[in-house]
Amino acid sequence: MAHEAERDPVTGQQTTGHEWDGIKELNTPLPRWWVYLFWATIAWSVVWWILYPSWPWLTTYYPGLLGSNQRLEFAERWQAAEAERAAWLDRIRESGLAEISADPELFTFASRGGEVVFKENCAACHGLGGAGQRNYPSLADDDWLWGGKLEDILLTVRHGIRDPSDPDTRESRMPAFADLLTPEEIADVASYVLSLSGQASDPEAARRGAALFAEQCAACHGDDGRGIREVGAPDLTDAIWLYGSSPEAVRAQIADPRHGVMPAWAGRLSEEALKMVAIYVHALGGGE
Ligand code: HEC
Ligand code: HEC
Question: Whose Cα sits closest to atom 21 in ligand 1?
Fold first, then answer.
């Protein structure tokens, strides 16, 4: 054809013969390397079609010569991970609390697992990280109602506190002193309680209250007011209050006490989960 021979005067290159408004298109071929790469990718895709699942059929699909199946691969890996987890859980189940704490790997596994259990089951009442809130004790400090050793914590979590559904629950009831003492006596003993933690109170009333305390309260809260863990009676001399430190709150607790309830977790959590969450709580900062 005529235009094949036509050359561009400036570059000396052939033109395609296409012309727009006097501008002619140069016939610049694709670079060789590009063309080879292009054919190579096509060849590669054909190999890929044959080796791997590719073409859909009516009800199934062409599975490929390699029989590759990502869903199966995922399931296998998942199973392997589960088996590994199960092996750890077996070790937790078979080991004592002290053994778990002494083995760094097992301890790490247990406290990580315990953290998950805690977030799912305990944080709603005890706060994230066991920080506690009004009416719900902090589990991250070293002030314990019922005890902060690993065994104490596990027992508390397993059987709960004042949970009527568990016969082995931790039990104790502070009496309602509105039935036993006059309002004046309640005010006096409240003044004494406030003085124990160094809060402002009427010294005369506190002196009268001290005698009442020895009679009515020391059996549970101790002669010095530092609490007795066997009955979950709090230390009244520190700055940590479950139900508030104001004179009104203290008088209300004496007259008509609250009885904090913590659900029992035996039966709701697996044996491993109970141990793991006890280990986690113990490691929050206050463990004994
Ligand atoms: C429905 C609210 C609630 C939930 C959920 C709950 N707790 Fe408690 N927990 C309490 C209350 C209330 C107390 C304090 C009981 C008392 O007054 O003696 C308590 C006390 C405790 C104590 C004793 C603290 C001490 O000072 O001796 C531990 C340990 C504890 N909880 C751990 C847990 C763990 C672990 C979980 C999750 C598996 C959990 N709790 C879930 C309400 C709850
Ligand atoms: C039978 C045991 C018992 C007796 C007796 C008793 N308490 Fe208590 N007291 C407890 C228990 C248990 C608690 C914690 C209740 C809870 O955890 O829900 C408590 C809680 C308190 C609290 C709340 C502390 C806080 O951190 O908010 C105050 C205040 C208190 N008692 C004062 C007294 C005074 C004053 C008397 C005597 C007039 C008295 N208690 C007698 C068992 C007793």
Answer: 262
